[in-house]
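Researcher: Please translate sequence to structure tokens.
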Amino acid sequence: MGGWSHTGCETSGAFLIPYLIALVFEGIPIFHVELAIGQRLRKGSVGVWTAISPYLSGVGLGCVTLSLLISLYYNAIVAWVLWYLLNSFQHPLPWSSCPPDLNRTGFVEECQGSSAVSYFWYRQTLNIAADINDSGSIQWWLLLCLAASWAVVYMCIIRGIETTGKVIYFTALFPYLVLTIFVIRGLTLPGATQGLIYLFTPKMHILQNPQVWLDAATQIFFSLSLAFGGHIAFASYNSPRNDCQKDAVVIALVNSMTSLYASIAVFSVLGFKATNDHEHCLDRNILSLINEFDFPEQSISRDDYLAVLMHLNATWPKRVAQLPLKVCRLEDFLDKSASGPGLAFIVFTEAVLHMPGAPAWAVLFFGMLFTLGLSTMFGGMEAVITPMLDVGVLPRWVPKEALTGLVCLACFLFATCFTLQSGNYWLEIFDNVAASLNLLILAFLEVVGVAYVYGMKRFCDDIAWMTGRRPSPYWRLTWRVVSPLLLLTIFVAYITLLSQKPLSYRAWNPKYELFPARQEKLYPGWVLAACVLLSLLPLLWVPGIALAQLLTRRRMWRDRDARPDTNTS
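Model: Translation complete:
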């Protein structure tokens, strides 16, 4: 239940509608399929799909590959969180002010041109390159945090479900405690109401954008960990008569309520930050007016500002036009809030600075994110290791601890690319290209595979045997028609969106004329080739294995036909 890399400001009023639709018609039905099929066939994702049909073995291998790719970059985000957590144990917080320049006569120019929070993230944490072509060097502090994150994951999953089960109690309950503290604190901050109004106000025009629907579907997949294969692996340990239907509904609803609960905490803090920024914007404009027109200090209040500006505009239009006045609308500041990693590492860290006892709030916040990230990693790695044991990647005499260690070590070595100066750009590619598209297609193949290959009657009989009741028309209709159709529609809309505009990324470039705005750049050809490879890598297993099975069967038939019939002699 740790889809925090995808949560964030996308969960606004407009986002809630597609989110709920995706939950009811995609999330819960597919979650039920995964739990039921894993529990009935008692195998990991590869074993389950091989049992359904040898031609569908590629779906299981696709899920394993996807889980591996997602675990690679997900633990890199956990490493960033660990870096921030370690930096939170100091007062003042290191992102609270700009560092002095080399002469110690002023502040670093890049920091002054942006903000202390952005400078700490882009320069002191990522030390980001201005272009994806410039890989730069490995940042040793990120490498150490990455090594520590993988070591923690290994220690927690070393024995499989026995150790994971004990650790998960803490990683699941600790975030609820911290969230509750943040909700109480957030609701008492000035501007919290504005943030919550923004959260729950639907903006219907945004619903026409396919990206919002894709984000909603992806958010459901991440928060419920669907199409990763982890649930199939975990469900195989359930008792054969466990009520998996109740599990699917209860867990999905608790998960979504938690997301909503987290949104209340996040948006009350964002409302506070936006109100703060809005007031600072008004104060700068008021100061400009006071200096230009020689008004007494504090003679213009924030409430009177608009009336005074209109009066001055009517009487001294030229003088007012020459002033560097900014448009100060609270809506704009709420709209500017980032999503994804930017929400945690820029927006929230800045908001924390304005709270009394900032380091304590920072420790709580990043401690919560660290445990959330770890609980997601447990599911992801279980989805990789269980099928490897099923398939017999290593000889049986090799202990599970050794296989787990080798997988974690290999993942750590591959993930070092995210500690390069171009690492953040690559992480965005993995997140956007490897995850979203593959999750959609694999989920589609899962639901179609169960409904049409395994057979709806057989599947319903299995559920009746396990739970004591047959699935209602809602389940049968969503599995047969609604879920596949919705997934296919979002997939087609997303491909159409991709074909309309070239793939680009937003670079942090201090030499860019509009800095601190990020520079929009097109991906070079070799990066586009890597994008295509990443998006196809998990899916290539599906036709590849099906073709291999077909050729093997043909060879067997040919050999059988060529063998002389001994009975006719």
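Researcher: Any highlights?
Model: The first strand starts at residue 504 and ends at 507.
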